[in-house]
Design goal:
By secondary structure, the chain is an alpha+beta fold. The protein has a domain at about 40-165: Alpha-Beta Plaits (2-Layer Sandwich), CATH 3.30.70.3270. It is about 30% helix and about 15% strand. It is elongated and about 150 Å long. It starts with a helix and ends in a 56-residue tail after the last helix. Mean pLDDT is about 80; it is low at about 245-248.
């Protein structure tokens, strides 16, 4: 029939037009900005820093200022300055922290390389796309206070990825605790198995004093070559006189 294809197309259009008023699956537009779009989990925009505690984001940052992301960033839009001191992290271990952490979002190209190279899962990609500002530089240069967001926020935008990261971090912490306990047990066992100090050896018979134990030292025998010719206890022998004179 001539025009049957046109009629079929109009029927499909009418069906979607009527369905768009009551069927959410057929909605083609939303009332933005009053209604926010549901973004897919894989959507990413600019990075943010993950903190363990929402009440103390600066004290529980996962970042330890290793500066790997700063070195690997292709447009060099990340700037990090290490702290001079250490403070306890979320696990209570003293750590160096970023005294300054800034990202220039006017240069960032959302490549996610900083996320891939971070060994501490401290930086992740955000889903914030409403970033229009009235200034070119100051408002687009985000500091660590603006970048820090709690782990609960990370679970809200990337639930699958966040669950995998938490499971991996928990396994790493458990392995570290078991390793520390095993090292302490091995050290204690080595200290217990250490032999006692050896007892004093008996004095060698050949080196023992001739007077025996506890007695006074025995007098030395006089040297025969140095004994007086008058014998023991006698008076000295007078020298012979020369003829006709006195003793010289």
């Amino acid at each position: 029939m001539l025009g049957s294809g046109l009629l079929q197309g109009l029927a499909v259009t009418a069906k979607n037009f009527v369905g768009s008023f009551h069927d959410p699956a057929r909605y083609t537009t939303i009332e933005y900005p009053e209604v926010k779009p549901a973004l897919p989990e894989a959507y990413r925009n600019f990075p943010f820093l993950v903190s363990e505690n929402a009440t103390d984001p600066m004290g529980t940052l996962r970042c330890v200022a290793c500066q790997i992301c700063e070195k690997e960033c292709p447009p060099q839009c990340i700037y990090i300055e290490k702290s001079k001191d250490k403070k306890p992290d979320a696990a209570g271990k003293p750590q160096i922290y970023p005294a300054i952490f800034a990202i220039d979002t006017s240069v960032c190209m959302s490549c996610q390389i900083c996320v891939e190279v971070c060994p501490f899962d401290a930086i992740k990609m955000d889903q914030v796309f409403e970033i229009a500002t009235t200034t070119r530089f100051e408002a687009l240069l985000l500091n660590r206070e603006q970048l820090a967001k709690p782990n609960s926020y990370y679970h809200g935008i990337h639930p699958t990825e966040a669950a995998e990261v938490d499971a991996r971090l928990a396994a790493d912490r458990k392995a570290a605790e078991e390793k520390a306990q095993a090292a302490a047990a091995a050290k204690a066992a080595a200290a217990a198995a250490k032999p006692a100090s050896p007892a004093a050896k008996p004095l060698d018979e050949s080196r023992r004093s001739p007077q025996g134990e506890g007695g006074p030292p025995a007098p030395k025998a006089p040297d025969e070559s140095r004994r007086s010719p008058q014998g023991e206890g006698g008076s000295p022998t007078p020298k012979p006189q020369s003829e006709g004179g006195a003793v010289s």
